[in-house]
Structures are given as structure tokens and as C-alpha cells.
Specification:
By secondary structure, the protein is an alpha/beta fold. The chain is about 25% helix and about 20% strand. α2 (about 90-100) crosses α3 (about 105-115). GO terms for molecular function: ATP binding.
Length: about 400
């Protein structure tokens, strides 16, 4: 098990991680999520003793990493797949690591088979593709048959078959009772792989809960309702009935209705009472990506701006500057898709795992509200280390 208590790391005026506490338990695939610059890589480096915490501590099995006897046999990690001598073959790279840790040479051939690099085992790693480098890094992490494994973006550069293989590998390792800690930006993959999530933003803990609870806490379920497309009055009639009953109705571009605030049986009853035929009535749940975006919308440091391409585009020919006055084309408004925020918490009920009030929800299609800042967090200065991610 990995346990962090009050973990803090400062680089001059920049605080990369602040008062971070969590546990990574065995038998589960724990996803480690957060925007770029949130401090994920710095946290992993502190777990492995590569960076010294400015405050707090982190242990593996009750001990700091540097105090573990023969650490490579207990902890395996993939932080940087490029940390390989390009002049060495894949087998020689793994063999050198094995000899340093007293691991028998036969284990090298075993892990090469696990990651599928037998055919290129004697080729120099400098000619490897990004995906092959990732496989070699995973092989190095598995070399000592450790009980604790850390992976930073393990599917980066892999093809679909490789991504599926990594997903199944993580699940298999966790099923064997190992502690598996995985950092990734691929929300769709985390939704299929992780059992538990630890989410940080600007170096502080935002969430520590199961994937299912995380989605439920940061989104709301909705019902998708569809009426005959040729009967617009039926759709409007149903919308009015649902709104009057206390539901929130949002039209979708394909003509369906997204309804929250009403259970499916109630929607069916209201449609029957209004004499409206339904072509579809199905329950839906927000994705992990939607829930993650809502949770971290106030903790994103790097946001893109609109590229106006000023001075790069050729001037359009005369007559193409716009529609002729009086003949403007009417462009129908298309409702913006999104997801409704969950209802406000009841008095005395904590909206999240930490008991911190959730930021006010944005109206569909409206600007996202800023997350409240922590009164105890120190101000962040300019980044002085590329390790803080």
C-alpha cells in the first residue's frame, strides 16, 4: 500500500504539491488524474524517492522508498519510457537492470514475452517506436515481480491492440492483490480500467473515491426522450408537461429531449396523460470525462485561446465579404449539448468526499464558474521545474 500524509513540494516560489494525503490500496487499479501542471509526476517522483518532499511524508508498505530492502523487487515503475540507453538492445537493457538487483536472467526473457518484444529483443532501443518504448518500460517495471507498481501515462503511443493489452494487464495485476497506481489523461480508458480515482488540481486533493461515486457526485443522470419527428406539436406538448411537473428539459440537435429531475416512470406517465407517443425513453449517465471536466474546470492552468490567424489568411475577393444586405441567411440556433449539474446538497450534507462546498453549477451552454480557492494554500509562482505536471 502507498500512503501519503501532508505531502508538500516547493520549487522556490512555486508550490507543486500542497498538503496532499491519500492511500493507494492493493487489489485495485487506482487512477491518478489531474490537469497538466497539477503535480502528478512530482507526486510519483516523491513516492519513488527521486524528489525530497518539502513537507509531509510518503511510504510504501509502511516504509519510505529509500529504506526498502532491494526496492526493485518490491516496487516497479514507469515514469519515462525514454530513460533507456539507445545503444543497448532491449534484452541487454533489461539484463543490466536485473543484474543490479540480483534478478535471474531468465526473468528478462519472461517479461520480454509478457510485453511482446521477443522478436526485437536484440535490436537497439534507439530505433524503437514510441509504443515499443512504452512496452520496454513496462517490462522494466515488471522485472522484479513487485507488489507495488506505478505507471505514468502507460498507453502513450500504443495502438488500439496495445491499449487493450495494457488495460487487461493492469486489471490482472490488481486481481493478483498488487497495488497498481496509474496516471493518465485518457478519461475513456480510465473509465474502463480504474476502480478508484485520486484527482488533484494545482497540487491539492480534489477527490478520492470510486469511479462510480465520482461520476455520481459530479454529474447528474438524465433521460433521453424522443417523439415522432414529423409531429413537432407532440414534442412541444411533452416539453411543456415535463417542465410543469418540475423537470428540466433541454433539446438536443437530433430532435431528442434531455430530461433531468424526473424518474423514467414519471416521464412515461406524463407522456401518457398528455396523449404523446414516445419513440424512445432511455436512461443515461454522464461519462467520466464530463464529470472530470466539471470537477477540474477551476484548476486548469493552461487554456487555449481562439486563433484568429491575423495576417495569415488571404483577403477574400470582392463580393465575398458577406451576404448582400437584405438577403442574409438565417442560421437556426442549435442547442448546445452538455450535462446538468447535480442538485444542490441538502442542509448538513457534504457534497463531496472532503466536505468542501462544490462550486456553483453553470447553466447549460453558459460560462463555467471558477472554483473557490483554498484559504490555506500558498500562492503559486512561476514554474521552475518541468517535473510539476
Amino acid at each position: 500500500m502507498i500512503e501519503a500524509v501532508g505531502l508538500t513540494k516547493r520549487y522556490g516560489a512555486k508550490t507543486a504539491v500542497y498538503n496532499l494525503s491519500f492511500q493507494v490500496r492493493p487489489g485495485l487499479v487506482t487512477g491518478f488524474l489531474g490537469p497538466n501542471g497539477a503535480g502528478k509526476s512530482t507526486t510519483m517522483r516523491m513516492i519513488l524517492g527521486l524528489d525530497q518532499p518539502s513537507g509531509g511524508h510518503v511510504t510504501i508498505g509502511g516504509r519510505p522508498f529509500k529504506q526498502l530492502p532491494n526496492a526493485p523487487r518490491q516496487v516497479g515503475a514507469l515514469l519515462d519510457a525514454k530513460a533507456v540507453h539507445g545503444g543497448r538492445s532491449a534484452r541487454n537493457h533489461l539484463l543490466s537492470l536485473a543484474q543490479l538487483s540480483g534478478i535471474p536472467a531468465r526473468r528478462v526473457d519472461e517479461v520480454l514475452g509478457v510485453v511482446g518484444l521477443q522478436e526485437v529483443a536484440k535490436k537497439r532501443s534507439k530505433g524503437f517506436s514510441l509504443g515499443m518504448g512504452q512496452r520496454l518500460g513496462i517490462a522494466a517495471a515488471l522485472l522484479g515481480d513487485p507488489q507495488v507498481l506505478l505507471f505514468d501515462e502507460p498507453v502513450n503511443g500504443l495502438d488500439p491492440e496495445g491499449i487493450l493489452w495494457v488495460r487487461n494487464l493492469m486489471k490482472q495485476l490488481a486481481a493478483e492483490g498488487r497495488t497498481v497506481f496509474v496516471s493518465s489523461h485518457l478519461m475513456s480508458e480510465m473509465a474502463l480500467t480504474a476502480d478508484h480515482l485520486i484527482v488533484i488540481g494545482r497540487g491539492q486533493l480534489l477527490s478520492d473515491m470510486s469511479v462510480r461515486d465520482f461520476i455520481s457526485a459530479n454529474s447528474a443522470d438524465f433521460a433521453r426522450v424522443r417523439t415522432p419527428q414529423t409531429e413537432a406539436e407532440q414534442r412541444e406538448k411533452l416539453s411543456a408537461a415535463l417542465t410543469e411537473a418540475g423537470g428540466q428539459v433541454m433539446p438536443e440537435p437530433d430532435g431528442a429531449l434531455r430530461v433531468t429531475g424526473l424518474p423514467l416512470p414519471r416521464i412515461s406517465d406524463l407522456a401518457h396523460e398528455a396523449d404523446v407517443r414516445l419513440w424512445e425513453l432511455s436512461p443515461h449517465q454522464a461519462s467520466l470525462e464530463e464529470a472530470y471536466m466539471r470537477m477540474t474546470q477551476g484548476a486548469v492552468d493552461y487554456r487555449s485561446t481562439a486563433d484568429q490567424k491575423a495576417g495569415l489568411m488571404q483577403q477574400p475577393p470582392m463580393g465575398a465579404m458577406g451576404p448582400v444586405p437584405g438577403h442574409e441567411q438565417q442560421i437556426p440556433e442549435v442547442p448546445q449539448q452538455g450535462f446538468y449539474a447535480p442538485p444542490p446538497p441538502q442542509p448538513g450534507q457534504h457534497p463531496d468526499a472532503q466536505g468542501t462546498p462544490a462550486p456553483p453549477a453553470a447553466a447549460p451552454g453558459g460560462p463555467a464558474p471558477a472554483a473557490p480557492s483554498s484559504p490555506t494554500a500558498p500562492p503559486a509562482g512561476p514554474t521552475t521545474s518541468e517535473d510539476a505536471r
